[in-house]
Amino acid sequence: MVKIIKDYIPKSNKNRPGNKMKPLYITVHNTANTDKGANALRHVNYVKKPNTATSWHFTVDDKVIYQHLPLNENGWHAGDGRGTGNMKSIGIEICENADGNFEKAVENAQWLIRQLMTEQGIPLANVVPHKRWSGKNCPRKLLNRWDSFKAGIATAKPATPVKNTPSKPKASKPKKSVNLPSGILKVTKPLTKGAGVKALQEALATVYFYPEKGAKNNGIDGYYGPKTANAVKRFQLMHGLVADGIYGPKTKAALQKALK
């Protein structure tokens, strides 16, 4: 029996924006965290922290499923800003902790997806990998078997969910203002680094195009490397700019507008 436990992100958190959503897609992720103990509960604790920028609807491991957001609210999980991935899809993270059974977690996720498809009227064609929205290699352990993963959704073993009430939310810290750097930033050798780059990364995180989930400090490291350039490029794409991955005056202006 698979438990579905509701443990919602506090409404005061910045990663629970409260935007109303009618889900049209289901987006599948892998947590990319292979540490022992990095199960669904560990991710509950992570996603409820006041300074966490990302959010999604369900985390699934080999024993339990946690729900972090109501299905009529969007999360920040797809890496496409206010695009369809974030604003119109249910985000599901599948755990890959070393002390868990990944294949069982996959089966649990397939069962959950089947229930959501039925409840929300979402067709199988709209069950998509994270890569669909941002180009990121995610879900990294399922992309090379995506067709068989989707085929397994139709035959996933039924289970009886047990739903618990959410815990009381804790008050979050006020949102931190971001001062954007002036000038042009791009990938160079050696890499451009400094407070300006870090401020840019924090700004991109605020509008949900950054950081790198699972990386140290969420990838906010003050270095303008390929991951930062990719986040800039995705931001540019969503805001009608030339997607060259170079932070310049037009990108700064668009980002300042997005931050308001």
UniProtKB/TrEMBL annotation:
Tell me which positions the record assigns to the signal sequence.
Answer: none
Give this protein's Gene Ontology molecular function annotations: N-acetylmuramoyl-L-alanine amidase activity
Q: Which family, according to the similarity comment?
A: Belongs to the N-acetylmuramoyl-L-alanine amidase 2 family.
Tell me where in this chain the N-acetylmuramoyl-L-alanine amidase domain is found. 13-153
Gene3D superfamilies, sorted: Peptidoglycan recognition protein-like, PGBD-like superfamily/PGBD
- Top EC class per UniProt? hydrolase
UniProt keyword terms in alphabetical order: Cell wall biogenesis/degradation, Competence, Hydrolase, Sporulation
Query: Catalysed reaction per UniProt?
Result: Hydrolyzes the link between N-acetylmuramoyl residues and L-amino acid residues in certain cell-wall glycopeptides
* Source organism of this protein record: Bacillus altitudinis
Give its E.C. classification number. Answer: 3.5.1.28
Q: Which CDD domains match?
A: PGRP (cd06583)
Q: Which residue ranges run through the membrane?
A: none
- What protein name applies here? N-acetylmuramoyl-L-alanine amidase
Q: Which domain of life is it from?
A: Bacteria
Give positions of region: Disordered: 155-178
